Amino acid sequence: MIIYLVRHGQTDWNARKIVQGVTDIPLNETGLAQAARARDLMKDVPIDIIYSSPLVRAYRTAEIINECHGVPIITEPRIRERNYGMYEAAGYEEYPGVEYWDYDKNKRFPGAETVREVFARVYECLDDIRRKHPGKSVMLAMHGGAARAVHVYFNGFPKDGTLKSLVTPNAEPVRFEIADDAPAHTPVPEHV
Questions:
Q1: Which residues lie below 8 Å from residue 74, measured CB to CB, with a gap of 6+?
Q2: DSSP assignment, residue 48?
Q3: Is 188 part of a structural domain of the chain?
């Protein structure tokens, strides 16, 4: 099975370095152009189905890329962005990014999901997609924070152990491949 991860195109909040989380911010002009560029890059890539976060920035990115494919787009809430709680709408310099993404500490910030809660829902979703679509090529339209779980699912934890270093650029497809008979990854792993 092949999975293509595509983080949504840029929003005004991305450009202004504001934490979006589950706040539903649309693509800006740059983001629309990035999504169109991703569409052009992926026009000859076989895609059987697209799963998209329900947030408009990801879903619109999926729609634009799908212009060349015409496949079903399934809205999947388990791949939405992390709820940042008290840090929704905060500037990047205001939120403690490294601590926020420390998998081992798994700290709960007021109103926010923990890192492991995000990983649990993304891992469960990936396991379900693999069961439903063996041998297929699937695209995920999602978000930079939640995408960290996808990177770890396929590649393991970074050598430095810091999830904050896993950055997925806006609207740049990332390809992963996994054998159909590879074991499921849930429950989420302990990091050692």
A1: 49, 50, 51, 52
A2: S
A3: no
State the residue range of the domain holding 146. 2-173
187 inside domain: no
Helix spans in the chain (H): 12-15, 29-42, 56-66, 97-100, 115-132, 144-155
Confidence at residue 85, expressed as pLDDT on a 0 to 100 scale:
97
- Tally the residues of the chain: 192
Number of domains in the chain: 1
Q: Is the peptide bond before 187 cis (omega within 30 degrees of 0)?
A: yes
Average pLDDT, the chain: 94
Active site residues: 8, 81
Is residue 28 packed enough to be buried (19+ CB in 10 Å), middle (13-18) or exposed (0-12)? Answer: middle
Q: In CATH, what number is assigned to the domain containing residue 103? A: 3.40.50.1240
End-to-end Cα spacing for the chain? 28
| pLDDT (mean) for 15-38 | 98
Residue type, 146: A
Is pLDDT above 70 for 90? yes
Domain-located, residue 144: yes
Mean pLDDT of 36-55: 98
**What pLDDT, in 10s, does the model give residues 109-151?**
999 999 999 999 999 999 999 999 999 999 999 999 999 999 9
42: in domain: yes
Is residue 189 within 8 Å of residue 13, measured between CB atoms? no
